[in-house]
Structures are given as structure tokens and as C-alpha cells.
Design goal:
7 helices, 8 strands, binds zinc ion
């Protein structure tokens, strides 16, 4: 399969994640590259992230608030403004029913992105249902946002993005070169401090060894994904350009 490289830098990019931190894992370096070149970013996070702790006694209301602050800080670490829309569905219980598309359609029609990024809903053997549903919500909301007769009750003009990039792609066919932006991605991931243990395998934030191992993991992923297109470091996506 031929792998395409680098979309034109968008004016506005909207990224949809199931949970706080998914967008940084999937596309953080790409978003920071675009932000550095003048692209406006908007994060949309579908769930409240309230299951994102391995501590059975965690204060879940506090966890939700902490994770919102972390997500805003991650947006800023990428070079964005910290603008995040939280759709607030319960973590682990996301669905992709028609009615749930409305707030995402509204976000797309208001922000009018050139490029929308989200989870690949067709990734095989994925266990986490929120990632699957967030992916379906994203692609279904793009279709609804683009055509004028969907969700007229929103009172917002329809909008057709130029391209869709799906991260965690089952069959990647597009790579964004991200040389020079790995550290921004890693900084943005470290903004999600409540997730150090559960997603970054760091139980001691003062451990240079653990921090270093996580950095190496991310760098190795960027090298592997870049390698699909013969470039030094990249993030790989399934691209849909006939929106
Ligand atoms: Zn997630």
C-alpha cells in the first residue's frame, strides 16, 4: 500500500477522543506541528474519564475535574489555547446512537475545521468500547455536519471538512512527519498526571528511569510509524480525503 505523507497544514483542526489523553497518544505530535504553523486546535473529549484510576477508593468527581484540567494543560502543551469541549458521557458507557451525535455535529459546525481527527472505529480486536464508539460518533457526526438536512434544530450552517485522519488505524495509509515535535507530544502526555500509572506505567513520577522508559516508548512508536512512509518520525493514520 502506498503511504501518503503530510496533508497541507490546516487552518483549524478538531480532534475527538474518547477520554482525556487519547488525542495526545493518537495525534499529539501532528497537532503540535500544525499549531506551530498557525493551525487552531479544538479538542473534543466524549467521556468524563471517571473510570481512569486503578485506585478503588478514588474520589471520582474530583478525578473528572482533575482530568479536565489536565486535558486543557495538554492542549496548551501542544501549542493550542487550552480549548476543550467535554461532552461528559459516563466513562466506559459511551454509545454511538444517532441522538448522541448532536453535540459533536454542533462542535464541527461551530468550529468549522479543515481536518477532523478521531479514533478508527474499524480497528479490529479493540477491547475498549469507548474507543470504538468514539470513532463511530466521529465519522457519523462528520456526515451529519456536512449535509444540511441533518440536525436542523441546531440552527448551525452545515460544514464539510476537507479530510479526516483516523488514529490507532487498522490500515494506516497516511503519515504526518513529526520530526522536532516528539517532545511536545511527550510533554502533553505528561500533562495527564493522573494517568501516569494506568497508561504510562509510571508509579513514581520522580523516577528518571520510569520517565525515560516512557519517553523511549513514545519515540519508538514515532520511529515505527514514520518508518511506514520511510521518514524519520511520524504519526500514522487512515486518511479519508473524499469527505
Ligand atoms: Zn481512551
Amino acid at each position: 500500500m502506498t503511504i501518503a505523507i503530510d496533508l497541507p497544514v490546516p487552518t483549524r483542526a478538531l480532534a475527538v477522543g474518547a477520554h482525556p489523553d487519547d488525542i495526545e497518544f493518537g495525534a499529539g505530535a501532528t497537532l503540535s506541528k500544525w499549531a506551530a504553523r498557525g493551525c487552531a486546535l479544538l479538542h473534543v473529549v466524549c467521556t468524563d474519564g471517571s473510570k481512569g484510576s486503578w485506585d478503588p477508593d478514588a474520589d471520582l468527581a474530583r478525578l473528572v475535574a482533575v482530568r479536565q484540567d489536565e486535558q486543557r494543560a495538554a492542549s496548551i502543551a501542544l501549542g493550542g489555547t487550552g480549548d476543550v469541549e467535554f461532552l461528559g458521557w459516563p466513562d466506559g458507557e459511551l454509545d454511538s446512537a444517532t441522538a448522541l451525535r448532536a453535540p459533536l455535529v454542533a462542535a464541527i459546525r461551530r468550529f468549522r475545521p479543515d481536518v477532523v481527527l478521531g479514533h478508527d472505529p474499524w480497528k479490529r480486536y479493540r477491547l475498549h468500547p469507548d474507543h470504538r464508539h468514539a470513532g463511530f460518533l466521529t465519522v457519523d457526526a462528520i456526515v451529519a455536519a456536512r449535509d444540511p438536512h441533518f440536525f436542523p434544530e441546531l440552527g448551525l450552517a452545515h460544514h464539510r471538512p476537507r479530510a479526516v485522519l483516523l488514529f490507532e488505524a487498522d490500515e494506516p495509509d497516511h503519515v504526518e512527519r513529526v520530526d522536532g515535535f516528539a517532545e511536545r507530544k511527550i510533554d502533553a502526555l505528561f500533562a495527564h498526571r493522573s494517568q501516569l500509572l494506568s497508561t504510562m506505567a509510571i508509579d513514581d513520577p520522580t523516577s528518571a528511569e520510569q520517565i525515560g522508559a516512557f519517553r523511549e516508548r513514545i519515540l519508538a512508536e514515532l520511529v515505527a510509524q514514520g518508518g511506514l512512509a520511510g521518514v524519520t518520525q511520524g504519526e500514522a493514520f487512515k486518511a479519508i480525503t473524499d469527505v
